[in-house]
Design goal:
Layout (H helix, E strand, L loop, with lengths): L5 E4 L5 E4 L6 H14 L10 E2 L2 E2 L4 H17 L14 E4 L5 E6 L4 E6 L5 H4 L9 H8 L5 E9 L2 E9 L9 H10 L3 E3 L3 E3 L3 E4 L8 E3 L5 E3 L3 E4 L3 H8 L11 H18 L1
Antiparallel strand pairs: 1-2, 3-4, 5-6, 6-7, 7-9, 8-9, 10-11, 11-12, 12-15, 13-14
Length: 270
């Protein structure tokens, strides 16, 4: 069954948003295609690849991509003046590692003005991939999905404006709970701080951070993990939505249950 973001109005007229996961492969593929359509104007016409990976990062590449995205945003009416962002809500937090965060309680949304290069080293990020980061997040963690709002700039450097529903969960899950959940997505421990596979890895998701929350039903919400793409973002997106992705295969628990049922049926036949 497909679930999408919904909304309802409280008694005082405030709109309360709910964010529900789209668990099927086809639903996430449909949503990813919609998300990608929102940023299609920014996609490079020619992908500069070499042996399946982007060419090596350079400050020149970063400056070029900054200028390209800002220019396209202005031409496409997707550019928002930086001073106008204050109208989106109250400043929830001063700039953290990579974002200014504005909260709009009436809409039930937070708006994040993200510097995509702020944690470039941790992400091993190529400039051509910055416009796709939120789409990868949405595929992996649809219950905390981002909506693309527009582009702004700060001192001639690109900033990506995203919105995200308020998360009402408050409990901090244990590291084991986080690791168990990520394993169902095919993201396994890589060293001390990362969970990943051959295409993507995530970090900043330990119980010591505030990036993962748990609700009363035990459901986990990954708010703002750091995502590292090991291949060009379009290839990562295509693979995550393909039948080959381990996310769409049986989890270890499901495999165990399936094997148990087979053994039980075999015993009954005996």
């Amino acid at each position: 069954m497909k679930y999408e973001q919904g909304s309802q109005f409280n008694n005082d007229g405030r709109q309360q948003f709910t964010s529900q996961p789209m668990d099927s492969q086809s639903a996430r593929r449909e949503q990813a295609n919609s998300d990608r359509g929102c940023i299609s104007v920014f996609e490079p016409k020619r992908i500069n690849q070499q042996d399946g990976t982007w060419k090596r990062y350079s400050r020149t590449e970063e400056a070029t991509e900054n200028q390209r995205i800002i220019s396209i945003a202005k031409e496409s009416h997707l550019y928002i003046d930086f001073q106008d962002i204050a109208n989106y809500g109250s400043l929830y937090s001063q700039k953290t590692g990579e974002s200014y965060v504005y909260a709009n309680e009436k809409l039930g949304l937070v708006f994040k003005v993200r510097n995509p290069f702020a944690k470039r080293v941790l992400k091993d990020l190529h400039p051509c991939d910055i416009i796709y980061e939120h789409i990868v997040h949405n595929i992996l963690f649809p219950s905390t999905r981002y909506n693309f709002v527009g582009i702004t700039s700060e001192i001639d450097e690109v900033r990506i404006i995203l919105s995200q529903n308020f998360c009402m969960a408050q409990e901090i899950p244990s590291d084991d709970e986080i690791a168990d959940y990520l394993a169902t997505l095919g993201l396994l421990p890589e060293g001390k701080y990362y969970f990943g596979n051959e295409y993507v890895a995530i970090t900043d998701v330990s119980a010591m951070s505030d990036n993962v929350l748990k609700d009363a039903d035990g459901k986990l919400y990954f708010i703002d993990p750091i995502i590292k793409m090991k291949k060009p973002a379009p290839l990562v997106i295509d693979w995550l939505l393909s039948d080959n992705c381990t996310m769409w295969q049986c989890t270890p628990i499901e495999k165990h249950e399936s094997l148990t049922k087979k053994i039980a049926n075999w015993i009954r036949r005996k």
